[in-house]
Amino acid sequence: MSTLKSNAGNLTLNADGSGNDIIIQSNTSTKVTVDGSAGDVKVENGDLFFATADKGIVLGVTTNVDANTLDDYEEGTWQPSYVCGSGTVTAHASYSLCRYTKIGRMVQIQGLVSTSGVSSPSGSLQMHGLPFAVNNNTSGESSGNAALAIAGIVDLDSAINVLTMRPEPGTSYISIEEFNGTSTANVADKWKTGTYFRFSGTYTV
After folding, report:
1. SS3 at position 124
2. Fewer CB within a 10 Å sphere, N or C end of the chain?
3. What is the pLDDT averaged over residues 55-72?
């Protein structure tokens, strides 16, 4: 027999007897089941939303809770832009939309960035507009500096060795450089109208 009681402002639903479940139904259709033995919560025929701010979901443990709490998830799009040492490179407004997924402090980004125009670019080349600022290395972390990869690049002004991308700590941009096996070099002067590339990777915040 189940009992429902109010005590000191709390509403308690008790399924008497070992192992009995607490079941919430709507028009005889089961919506939520609380396992009477393990305490697991099962949601059927619907979605489970957590609306309490700054709490999160504890995953897999009952101790060391803070380290195992997922307290942030977000996904969306971001529009990149270029900054050069001198001159300009313009990212195409319609063919440069990138996506991101943030889980905890890890951000996964990906996209295809196309160029709609250039004006005498030279020197360094940065891609701005990251959805979250890169970790500032205050804990000696690498900030995902080596975690970005370019899947393919098309139509540069001249041949290069390997193109690399590096999220800069404490900023919201990525540095793009050429790597020849021993050192890096600037690449802004290699960009031209029609240059595009695909990329994917992660960094920490």
Report:
1. strand
2. N
3. 70
